[in-house]
Structures are given as structure tokens and as C-alpha cells.
Structure prediction request, 257 residues.
Amino acid sequence: MVKDNSIFQQYVITLDTDWAPEYCIEFTADLLIKRNCKATWFITHASDMIKRISENKKLFETGLHPNFLPNSSHGKTAEEVMDYITRLCPDSKIMRTHALIQSSPLLSLINSKYNVDIDMSLLLYETPNITPHLIRLSKESKGLLRIPYFFEDDVEMYNPKKIWDINNPKYHINGLKVFNFHPIFIYLNSDIIEPYEELKKIGALSTLDKKTVDPFVNTKVYGARDLFIDLIDYISNHQSASYTATDIASIWYKLHG
Prediction:
């Protein structure tokens, strides 16, 4: 494991489950398992496949993915949402909010009342020299370590100069490079958002079977799945180790006391 600041040049995989069908989550997990690649999964719901992921302590960790948007299935208030999501992952101390909803009071509540001490709700897209940083939001706070992330698959779909090639220089700038993917976009090999939006009109994602979803899979151009596979192959071939978000946090604390 990297023991100095070179850790903050590494690539890290995170995933937001976002109510994806079981076979999409399984498909994604199998790609990682095949390459012995670690990842942090941010959980929105309970399922048999998510239970299997949480039991694979060697490769995976599960984090909280609370939905604070209006009409959330997680709850009406911040406390209701956090009570719900912490029941799914009672031991988790790491979070990325759904839709990146955040505020100082919200982060303070989550840090102090729910003992979340790592947050990944800050997207610094294609930004060089990313490194974790510690903030304190109350006098009593022991600190919330924020680990910004560098890439998100659906954001790339809106990029007029989108690139799904891991060899492109934009993916090799200085700094920590946390990539975030969604199992549904990996399964669909999404290059544009429209097929996903059409799928959502059919029904709740978690209820859609493969027969319904498979016609929407992109097989014509490079997409999110291609980048994901190339990235985890790159990590396997070029990094001395792969990392969860908690691994990164632990190394940061060792370096900063």
C-alpha cells in the first residue's frame, strides 16, 4: 500500500446503486471481482445482491447514499432519511448524498448525530490536484473528511466533448482520481442519457427485468461500461493496489496525524 503523498495520484472506484435492478448490480460486481479490484458502493436500498456485496469485505465497502430530495422514499425530513439509510448500513461511516444535496447544517447533523466521518458529496469534475480535506462544522465535531471525486458517468454523457477512452490525457492529470459509476449505466453501456430516461417511463428501475432492459443496451459506440472495464483493467495493471474510500481516508489520517 502507498505510504506517502503518492496515494493522492491513485485511481479509486465508487458506485451509486440508485435502485438499480439486481442483475445490473451483479454484473458490475462480477467485473470487479474478476479483476480483484476494490470499490466503495453507496447504497440506496436493501436487496439480496447488496447483501452479498456487503459481505465481500475483501474487496467492497458499503456507504450511505441518502436521498434528501422532495418525495424521497427514504423519508420526509433529514432525520427520517438518515434513520432509514443507517438501518441499511448500520456500521457505515461514509456517505455520498443522492443528487449531491448538501448544506453546512445538513453535513453537521450527519457528522454529529449519525457519526459519518467521511463525505464524498463534492464533485470536482476533471479537476487537477485533488486531495482530501478535513472540515469541522461545530465546536464538538471531530471533523468530517471530505474526499472530492473526479468523474461521474452521467455527467460525462452531457459533456459536448465526452470521451470514454481511459488513455485520454484528461484522465491522467495530477491528483487523486475518484471515479463514480452507476450499475445501470454500466449495464446499459450508456453514452447518452435518453435511453435511461425512456426506461424510467416504463416503470421503477428495480422492477424491470432483463428482457425489458436489454433492448436499451448500447452496442454501437464506446460508453460507460467500456470506460469502466478499461479503468479497472488499468488499475489492475498499473497500480500496486486498489483502494476503497476508507483506505484513502486512513492513509490521509496517517499522513496528517
User: Anything to note?
Assistant: The two ends are 18 Å apart (CA to CA).
